[in-house]
Amino acid sequence: MTAKYIFFTGGVVSSVGKGVTAAAIGRLLKERGFKVAVQKLDPYINVDPGTMSPYQHGEVFVLDDGAETDLDLGHYERFIDVRLSRVCNVTTGQVYAEVISKERHGDYLGGTIQVIPQITNEIKRRIGAVAKATGAEIVLVEVGGTVGDIESLPFLEALRQLRSDLGRENTLYIHVTWLPYIGATGELKTKPTQHSVRELRSIGISPDVIVARSDYPVEDSLCEKIALFCDVEKRAVIPMATTPVLYEVPLLLEKARIAEFITERLKLEARRKPDWAEWTRLVEEVRREKPSVSVALVGKYVELQDAYMSVREALKHAALHLGVELKLSWVHSVELEKDRGWNQLKEVHGIVVPGGFGGRGIEGKIRAARFARTEKIPYLGLCLGMQLMVVEFARFVLENEEANSTEFDRITPHPVIDLMPDQRQINDMGGTMRLGLYPCHLQPGTIAAKAYETDLVEERHRHRFEFNNDYRTILGEKGMRFSGLSPDGRLVEIAELVDHPFMLGTQFHPEFLSRPNRPHPLFTAFLKAVCDQAGIQIYPRDQAS
Ligand code: GLN
Predict the structure, then answer these.
(1) How far, rounded to the nearest angstrom, does the alpha carbon of residue 300 sit from its chain's CA centroid?
(2) CA torsion angle for 15, 20, 25, 28 (degrees, to 10)?
(3) Over the stretch 130-173, which tens digit does the pLDDT of each residue have?
(4) In a domain, 312, yes or no
(5) Which of 464, 467, 492, 508 to mutate to test the pocket of ligand 1 (most atoms within 8 A of CB)?
(6) 57-67: per-residue pLDDT in tens?
(7) Could you say which of 461, 511, 520, 531 is catalytic?
(8) What is the three-class DSSP state of 381?
């Protein structure tokens, strides 16, 4: 049986939550017993976002297989609770690289290589690869950007062709648009939506469903108008006002009966009744008044919070689980270096230093780690945050402020964090780090082992540098415990301090595996330590109900 395909395009403007809509619809279908996968098609020419600045792109989300992908894949994994594969993120760069390499190899000998059909065929091949790789019965495909962008045309053409290739009952087009609000007259406008649907039609795609996003409630009469002008059924116009509770989106879409429309049009029979009890509880919990805890996220991309999307979500998941309200304070590490922002840091009950690359703001993060260690404030270091926690501790133990990672100081006398041996020969930047899932053995009796309640875990990595084993003995003697190691014992994956309520860093990124209803054990343990420290009573969810 061929898979069924749901294609998502965006209209009017980007950043209106197309990814979340696709993710939430994926959840609706999973709740009905279908196996779903989601794919993002990104029109930019980079091969993957791994080489892009977080300012350009937001967070790079890493999958089990080490693919560096768009942050929308994080939404997909969190909402649907799936583990996706590298076939689920395709860029123009990948498509062209493949076609050009085949051309050099002589595969098209004699032919002229053109956007149609060679490029569009390669796009279609990659769309088809998802069902093969994941066994999904329904594949949701989201095209990045908005209709009208030059870059996305080949993708849209491929989607157009797929309707005739696969048939009407196997394909469905969902257009996610935006209704602007005009303050002067106090009304929402549908004209930009009409225009973008016309644009989509001119490419040969007629949307079956329109999700009308807006910051204000969308009246029924407006949905009727959209239906009339855009030639879709009234019940297929789904109003979606912005909600402050992200995880409410599936419930809102369920109420709008979009899943019934989709299954009917795709000739699918739901296998079971959706059970929203857990999600409903989750959303109620978000809304409930709770005691608040404040945590600082010390980063250098804090102006763009999307750069830390999974970290923020993982903290929220843990807070929900513990029944507390997370007050996240965004502290700029460069500011700390200039002796600013310290008041902000002094007010929080816990500190998170997330991942990052390059020298800017490093000393500020090290100072934040020093503050956490000396003031006994719970600290969670993620990848770079772990490396800098080691640097800070080494500076203290070795009484040498020059101890560093060779990423920031190549000639430091104490390279406590250094390039992994197999990284030394590598010159290419793209896709060459230590990437994806690796096993980690937990040392019994440590904070990490107690948090995980097991002795072997697998976590996702994305880094080039590593703890330098030459310093294991000296730092170990002075109170640093290496609580997580690679199975051969060679790589330090988790470090923690003995004489501290909670100071722990992971070489991997636990944030990628946290789920709204299944928070990551290390985030929960960290936040629990934060609450203990702040004297806040917690009521973990499974015990409360
Ligand atoms: N820059 C560091 C490294 O490459 C840390 C990477 C990260 O935080 N993801 O090892």
Answers:
(1) 18
(2) -160
(3) 999 999 999 999 999 899 899 999 999 999 999 999 999 999 99
(4) yes
(5) 464
(6) 889 999 999 99
(7) 511
(8) strand
Q: Which residues contact ligand 1 via a Cβ below 6 A?
A: 355-357, 383-384, 407, 462-465
Measured distance CA(518)–CA(514) in Å, rounded: 6
What's the gap in Å between 541 CA and the centre of ligand 1?
34
Check which CATH number belongs to the domain holding 398 and give it: 3.40.50.880
Q: Are 380 and 322 members of one domain?
A: yes
Question: Which residue among the candidates 88, 223, 383, 531 is catalytic per the annotation?
Answer: 383
Contact at 8 Å (CB) between 293 and 534? Answer: yes
Atom of ligand 1 nearest to the CA of 417: 10
| 224-238 mean pLDDT | 93
In angstroms and rounded to an integer, the radius of gyration of the C-alpha atoms of the chain is: 25
DSSP assignment, residue 416?
Answer: E
Q: Which domain holds residue 520?
A: 289-417+433-544
Whether residues 270 and 413 share a domain: the answer is no
CATH code of the domain in which 43 resides: 3.40.50.300
Same domain, 371 and 437: yes
Tokens for 139? 């594949």
Q: Domain count for the chain, please give it.
A: 2
Any domain includes 201:
no
* pLDDT number for residue 412: 96
Q: Please answer whether residues 482 and 494 qualify as being in contact, where contact means their C-beta atoms are separated by less than 8 angstroms.
A: yes
Residue 407 CA to ligand 1 center (angstroms) comes to: 9
Q: Give domain status of residue 424, yes or no.
A: no
